[in-house]
Structure formats: C-alpha cells, structure tokens
Amino acid sequence: MRNLPGYQKQLYEKYYGYALKTVFRYIYRYDKAVDVVNDGFVKLFSHFSRFNCQEPEHLEKILMGWIKKIMINTAIDELRRQNMLPEIGGIPEYVWEEADSQQTAEQRLYYKELILEVKQLPPSYRIVFNMYVIDGFSHQEIAGQLGISVGTSKSNLAKARAHLQKKLNSDIGEADICSS
C-alpha cells in the first residue's frame, strides 16, 4: 500500500474521524491529537503489509480494529514522551459529528459527555479506564503497555469507576434539585 497513494488517501479520508476520536480519548489538545493521528497513519501505511485478514466478510471490522490499535499505541507513545501528562484543550464541534456518522445525535452527545468526564480523571486512572472499558484491553495487556503491574491496572480502574460514579451521582442529585 506504500506505493499506492490514491488508496492511502481514500483510507485516510474514510477513517480519519474514527482515528481522531480514538486518539482524542488519550490526547486532549486538538492540534496534538491531529499530529498523533497523522503519525499513526504513517505507521499504518508503512506496516500495511503486516495486515492480514483471514475473514474477508469482516474486512472492515478487522481493519478498524487494527487502525484503533495503531492509534492507541501511537497515543500512548506520545503520552510516554510527555511523562503521561496529557495537554488539555478543546476539540472543535464538527469533529464529534464527523467521527462516527452511524451514531445518532443522542449517542454522540452521551459519548461526548462521557469523554468530557473521563478527561477530568487523574492521568493514570484515565488511561487505564480508556484502555479497559472503552478499548477492550485486558489488565495484562494494559500492564504490559504501560509498564505497571496488573494489580495497579485493576486498582486504577476501580478508582476511575469510583470517581465517575461519584460524579454521576452528584449530577443526578443536581438534576433532582433543579427539577423540584
């Protein structure tokens, strides 16, 4: 695929929003997330010969999983370079709509709200939460990727869930007060 720029462009344009949405769960400054996505696509195109699909009827699903894995690994590499401290920043509204056109407006809104809450977690909790809950990594895989123990991964996930639950409960309490 390295020698087929037309196909690279089509693949890039089709999956750019998906890749950006994936990276933005880890890198919160829009311009830095765009750089990470572009770095991820460079890796994808340079290693495309490694992509192997044994089930052609599931090609797109398998390709999206591969893209997701590359983007997450590229984002984690960037966080390591920053000592796991993400740069906070906003993301333009159009990116939320572009990122997954198959979702309803309500699903996009809930997803956006979840990501904004996850964004408030301490970095170590946030990364483990993203990898385990949203991206489906096992604690063993997370431990290997981040250089932590499996126990630390499990502990960080429990603490992240507790923080989010507390926030959810306080938001529900505020909504009850406002509706009274």
TrEMBL record:
Residues 114-164 form the RNA polymerase sigma factor 70 region 4 type domain. One of its GO terms (cellular component) is DNA-directed RNA polymerase complex. SUPFAM superfamilies: Sigma2 domain of RNA polymerase sigma factors, Sigma3 and sigma4 domains of RNA polymerase sigma factors. One of its GO terms (molecular function) is DNA binding. CDD domains: Sigma70_r4. Residues 11-83 form the RNA polymerase sigma-70 region domain. Keywords: DNA-directed RNA polymerase, Sigma factor, Transcription, Transcription regulation. GO terms for biological process: DNA-templated transcription initiation. InterPro entries: RNA_pol_sigma-70-like, RNA_pol_sigma-70_dom, RNA_pol_sigma70_r2, RNA_pol_sigma70_r4_t2, RNA_pol_sigma_r2, RNA_pol_sigma_r3/r4-like, WH-like_DNA-bd_sf. Belongs to the sigma-70 factor family. ECF subfamily. This is DNA-directed RNA polymerase sigma-70 factor. It comes from Filimonas zeae.
